[in-house]
# Entry
Amino acid sequence: MKKWLKALLCVVLALVLIVGGYVAYVFIDYHRLGDMALEVSNPQSGEMQPAKDYAIMTWNIGFGAYESDYGFFMDGGTESWAWSEERLDANMENIARELAAQEADLYIVQEVDRDATRSYHRDEVEPIVAALPDMGWIWAQNYDSPFLFYPFTQPHGKSVAGIMTLSPFAITDAQRYELPIEDSVMKLLDLDRCYSVTRIPVEGGHELVLYNFHLSAYTSDGTISNEQLELVLGSMAAEYAKGNYVIGGGDFNKDILGDSHVYFGASDKEYTWAQPIPQEILDRHPELTLHAPLDEDNPIPTCRNADGPYHQGQYVLTIDGFITSANVEMNGIRVVDTGFAYSDHNPVMMDFTLLAE
# Structure
């Protein structure tokens, strides 16, 4: 056999071994955390009160990377990391200031990295708790990937990210619950989805049971997020049946208006994370109400498709909002219009009252 052919075969064999070894590493490293109790950090004291007005804010902060000029590779953009360490730190400070400026009573936040290649291994919890020092908080791991070597020019790397809930009142218990994900190879993109349940005492002996979730986006057909939502709604309904107050919210990765295209224009592509919620899922739980922020005179979307820098005509819609039980009165809901300066999501604020018995 000629020397050049032997050399070529050696190179091919080496590549096969490297690729095969990497594929084996990804599948061997893959795991799920399961259900678990969560630690309450900086615990506070005090109860919430019926018949008193409160405000809650939800915000997917996009791991601090999605400034207005950012496009993410999984959405059709080119970037896989935040622009730079300096810009990430500055943007996280802006996010933390925006959270504090809204002066909400409760916060639920999604895509908060703690140790990820894409965010330079910054613990993004730190600037948030520094801006809200008088709040107890919990963090539930929602994403834990092995090292992803794609894109090849700037591998996305390893990610540990989660969802965060903050409260100035006592948190008596907090739990992480696993959500179903696809069984196919798509699980390697979706990874360890969960929702968190935080219990806050209410004067009179009941609790506010607060759900924080970030449902699956990058799936084969979008049906798995329907299953996830059904599971969350079933748990919420069970808590309401016990006499508790229940609020759930976050990033649905669903068009929660059902017809966002009417207000913001349609996309020429179909996205699994932009499908409406099937009405029958909501109808199964009449004791729960979905609240999507919409000012018909001045409609503001909650999310943009990060296929490139934010620009006029980019696909936008509403996928962030809240669900409440029948004993929680929603007094108003609005989008905080940041112009997508800090994230590919705008925050959503809801005013509410826990109804007296």
The mean pLDDT is 91. The chain has two domains: 1-30, 35-354. The helical segments are 3-29, 85-102, 125-131, 187-190, 223-241, 260-264, 279-283. The radius of gyration is 21 Å.
